[in-house]
Amino acid sequence: MKLQYYVIDTPFKDTFTISGGRSKTSQPALIVSLSIGPLIGFGEAPAISYYDVTVEKMVREIKAKKLFIEKFALTDPERYWHYLHHLLPEHPFLVCALDMACWDLYGQMERKPIFKLMGNSWGNTPLTDYTIGLDTIDNMVEKVKKMPWPIYKIKLGADNDLDMLQALRKVTDSPFRVDVNGGWSYNKALEMLPRLAELGVELVEQPMARAKNEADLQQMRALYEASVLPLIADESCVRLADMTGIEQCFHGINIKLTKCSGITPARVLVDEARKRNMKVMMGSMNETVIGSAAIAQFLPQLDYVDMDGPLLLERAAGVGLRIDQGKVTLSGAPGLGVRPSDLPEGGIA
Fold first, then answer.
1. Which of 143, 153, 256, 279 is catalytic?
2. What was the pLDDT predicted at 23?
3. Is residue 311 included in any domain, yes or no?
4. How much is the pLDDT for 330?
5. Which among 54, 267, 275, 329 has the fewest CB atoms less than 10 Å away?
6. Residue 348's pLDDT is what?
């Protein structure tokens, strides 16, 4: 295999803000490609400062391990992921990008879309929501008016959360999914959940911060028992080790390909969640079309999906994936079924 990489930085249409005052105006990312002969597979890793993931660190790791990344004889994407997992143990986002590229390449070798390689058929797939980031109430209302959508994901975690939701409810009847990113205390969550149900909220993602001790876990279990709405784990469930006892704290999990380190481990997380009779959501980290197409391969297996990166960014940076009023359509081509556009000239080998 031959490896190349491209550094991109895509502006958001609007400043993207979540709880804790975390804001950004653009999304830097690393696009990688793996090729064998004329076949080229692509993958994407967004840089997320909250997780101390930067493009510069990923590029340094690629330069240090490039020969080892390339020398693997590709016969099975899962074997390659295990190889990368041991080669790059501290770099799950980079492993994810390479795992995506490998699945894309392997799908082209087998002449099948990835979802078919995983044994699924394209049928009644869930609609993706559209995210409204934290802002002034007036700005959030204007964003909803400007983007009529069948389901909205609303970022909360501010002092005036209830006021925001009440204002948004006045301008749309669409269901809301609330994402708090761990921004509430136990008492605030307990107070808010019944009010959210009255406002047409469908589910709540990560109401409290990831548990650090047994006392935190006890509060999560108590909130789970008291909740009138489904609670979905995000930061509390990143990898397989986090699944132990997760069904006592949440009704479902939100899988992020970048955080769990790729398509290969995400398949295991889906299976584990189903064994526990939990709902399965898959979320984005504001990926372009490349990373979003990898999420789309799981649509036949999901209850909920949040893959609106190409809608939030100024440029989708790829072709082959379409999102129309929440409905996701793939090209049907082998592998990811998409190709990047607007990449820097030539890439770096």
1. 256
2. 82
3. yes
4. 95
5. 275
6. 59
pLDDT beneath 50, residues of the chain: 349
pLDDT tens column, 166-194: 999 999 999 999 999 999 999 999 999 99
| Residue 195 covered by a domain | yes
**Token digits of residue 190:** 């307990």
Q: Is the pTM of this model over 0.85?
A: yes
Residues placed in the known binding site for Mg(2+) = 179, 205, 234
Residues of the binding site: 179, 205, 234
CA distance 269 to 121: 19
For residue 345, what pLDDT is reported? 63
Q: Compute the distance between CA of residue 42 and CA of residue 72 in angstroms, rounded to an integer.
A: 17
What CATH number should be reported for the domain holding residue 64? Answer: 3.30.390.10
Name the residue range of residue 6's domain.
2-111
155 catalytic per annotation: yes
The reply to whether 259 belongs to the active site is no
